[in-house]
Amino acid sequence: MTDSIMSKAATMEIPINSNGDTGTLPEDDSLEQAAKLHWSLDEKDLQQVMVSGPNLNETSIVSGGYGGTAEGIIPTSSIKGSNMHHSSSNSSMMAEEATRGVAVEKLETVKKWGLNTYKCTKQMISERFGRGSRTVDLELEAQIEVLRDTKRKYENVLRLARALTNHFYNMVQTQHALGDTFADLSQKSPELRDEFGYNAETQKLLCKNGETLLGAVNFFVSSINTLVNKTMEDTLMTIKMYENARLEFDAYRSDLEELSMGPRDAAAMARIDAAQQQYQVQKDKYERLRSDVIIKLKFLEENKVKVMHKQLLLFHNAISAYFAGNQQQLEQTLKQFNIKLRPPGADKPSWLEEQ
Q1: Where would I find the beta strands (DSSP E) of the chain?
Q2: Is the distance from CB of 190 to CB of 137 less than 8 angstroms?
């Protein structure tokens, strides 16, 4: 309403009399009242702003000049919201890009694995049906075959030694029970006290010597088990890796040969270059594992001779001393090979030994 009054006052014509003075108009009082009313309204608004202060959350940025329309007013809250939305959208886009990168990397890995598996399977089938060529190292393959045959024989020795240990353990337990029975009967049969007593002492002596022999045989079994199931098995695992590398090497070699016999355009030359690089990688891997196998076979043979020399000597001396009834030689054999026997009833280690 104030704006309408001021607009009316601004456009009202002011009559001038013949002397150049403005005449007294009826509207003068209304104009003065309107000006006073407008000033009082502005003063009240200013006081209200000074008291309450501006609300920063509702502060507006005005675009355009004085008297512009409301379309140029941009609330700052909308600016804050748009900035937050922009930052959240950037973070979500970065997360999506990272996830997409991981997915692409996994897909590329699966693709390479599938291509490598296809080539190796093709090479394996070709070799099996006699249509493909394979890299052969006659000397190394002969050594590998000897190792596998040796492992089978040593496994048989290990199986028989364990069976001997079980049977001998049962015999020692029977001798122990028989000696206790003879000793009990010697106390309850006065007329046969001496006879039962002699047999009880004999069985106890045999039981003691049997436990000593069991200590030697158990040490023999443990050493053979370590040699067969750890040392030889580790070498055979390296041999398995070598054989897989040999198959991959032949697969990529055959692939390179097939490409070399084809056309020589730009695309074919690019494929040949890529195949040449893969072939070189597989060749280096094959030669490295071949060298590892040769070294491990050499050290395995030396270790096998050293271990078996010691264990066979132990087994022979212990068995001979036991069946000869030479208790002193049997005990000396265990001392020679640093074998310590556990006392009877000490099947499990004490809590101090477990710490």
Answers
A1: 60-62, 73-75
A2: no
